[in-house]
Amino acid sequence: MLILASGSEARRRLLIQAGILHKIIPSGLDESKFQEQNPKKLVQSLAHAKAMATLSKLVSKQIKDLSPNQITSILGCDSVFEFQGEIFGKPKDAKEALERLKRMSSKSGWITTGHALLENVSSSESNQINFNCKATAVITTEVKFCKLSQAEIEAYVSTQEPLDCAGGFALEGKGGMLISSINGCFSNVIGLSLPWLREQLSL
After folding, report:
1. Nearest CA-CA partner of 84 in 110, 60, 116, 56
2. Is 78 a known active-site residue?
3. Taking the CB of residue 94, how many other CB atoms lie within 10 A of it?
């Protein structure tokens, strides 16, 4: 069984759609302590830290309904949206979401997602829990926005959806209407690259 070290509903849906057996154990990581300005370094650091934080919960037996031998791997992911040299996380409020979408109209930005996959290498003869970092990856996808009117932007922000998304839009939700094209991995924009994960799980 795969453990997803995230409470992201979008990532959970991706795993369900792909038919990957999994359980959600959010890392509880305090992301505010990570101040790296390079988006690729930031998401990779956060992805690995999330996976390790969830592993720590398992080692300390905070998760009581799951034994380590049921777990094959732990996946940590983190995404940021980069636009004109700025890193956009979730908008802090509706005003910021409106301002961002006005700037992004007819322009392109980049979703960068860090992935860290820990593999269970514990011995059946030992009671110790042992995980190795099997693979890491940083994957970037270009997102091009349609020309957006003020009314369209206001209507979208009023749904509250952009307040829960890195960058302020959800490709898989109502925000899909705002996107004219993507260049790269589709599922990466939603929160994790399924082609990358499939390759790692099949190795």
Report:
1. 110
2. yes
3. 15
Q: Is the pLDDT of residue 45 over 90?
A: yes
**Is the whole-model pTM more than 0.85?**
yes
Indicate the fold that domain 2-202 takes in CATH: Maf protein (3.90.950)
Provide mean pLDDT across the span 193-200. Answer: 96
Half-sphere exposure of 57 (CA within 13 A, CB side): 20
- Catalytic member of 65, 78, 93, 164: 78
pLDDT of 74 strictly over 80: yes
Please report the beta strands in the chain, taking only residues with DSSP state E, as ranges in sequence order.
Answer: 2-4, 22-24, 73-83, 86-88, 108-120, 131-145, 179-183
Average pLDDT over residues 83-99: 92
For residue 8, what are its two tokens? Answer: 């992201």
CB 118 within 8 A of CB 134: yes
Tokens standing for residue 179? 């996107």
pLDDT above 70 coverage of the chain, percent: 94
At 154, list the tokens.
């206001």
Cβ neighbors of 33 (< 8 A, separation 6 or more) are: none
Beta bridge partners of 135: 117
Spell out the domain ranges in the chain.
2-202
Rounded Cα–Cα distance for residues 137 and 163 (Å): 26
